[in-house]
Amino acid sequence: MTHEVVGDFDRKATKAPASEKTLKERWRVLKHVHKTPDGPKAKTPCDDFERPKPPAPTPVGIDIATVQRVADALEQCARGTRLKSAERRDYARYVTLTTTAQRPAQMVRAIAEDFHLREQFWIVRGAKGGPTHAIHLNKEMRGAVGLFLAAGALGRYDDNQLLALARAHGWPKTIPSTTRGTRSRSMPSGRAPTSAMCRRCSATRASTPRGGSTPASSLRQKNVGKRREGRLKIR
């Protein structure tokens, strides 16, 4: 790569305004193209600037009736199949994600010993930069987790396949997210947050002391979970 090519790239990269996400990628590429011809210690136009960060995603609500309709369809598919069939696992994963609002990356890391149904909490293992934390399990969450464990749904699975299946039964095609999140601290009653809200909740937990939930936030989550019991019917 010649210096002429680098100069041409610089002009194109700074010619027009761009979104934060595009600027973040341009920053990375600019550093790379300047260090390629001159070595890893070469000066670049990015040295005096931090890498741009995209803004926090805007929470998007989904009507709780839609979440229930998809759950009912998946439960109908699972009905009559063997206990640990693929259909029962799909249903169990869907209701576990949508009732607890945890990430698929957190769910796949879970082991049976993380779930304490009698004491009503789940020790959620950290994932994607988020810390390990505990969440209270209300009645419908415990029902979902019970199905999850009974179906042998622990471990890795294809989240994109589950999303496609949920979309086939009514999950909005305009929302490019995995099926997680009917619980939120700030969403109005009757609406369910998608993954954008889950990421915001995870970011909030990550900023608490020692990387975990504070007693106050844990109590608040428990109270919210109690108030929202009965919104979803887990069969």
Task: Describe the protein in words.
There is one protein chain. It contains nine helices and five strands, in the order ααβαααβββααβαα. It has 235 residues and is mainly alpha-helical. It has two domains: 1-55; 61-227, hpI Integrase, Chain A, CATH 1.10.443. Strand 3 (121-124) and strand 4 (133-136) form a beta hairpin. Helix 3 packs antiparallel against helix 4 and helix 4 (86-100) packs antiparallel against helix 6 (139-150).
List the helices and strands and how they pair.
Elements: H1 3-13, H2 20-38, E1 61-63, H3 64-78, H4 86-100, H5 104-107, E2 115-116, E3 121-124, E4 133-136, H6 139-150, H7 159-168, E5 191-193, H8 195-206, H9 215-227
Antiparallel strand pairs: 1-5, 2-3, 3-4
Helix pairs in contact: 1-2, 3-4, 4-6
Kindly summarize this structure in a few lines:
The protein has 235 residues and is mainly alpha-helical. It is built from nine helices and five strands; from the N terminus they run ααβαααβββααβαα. The longest helix has 19 residues, at 20-38.
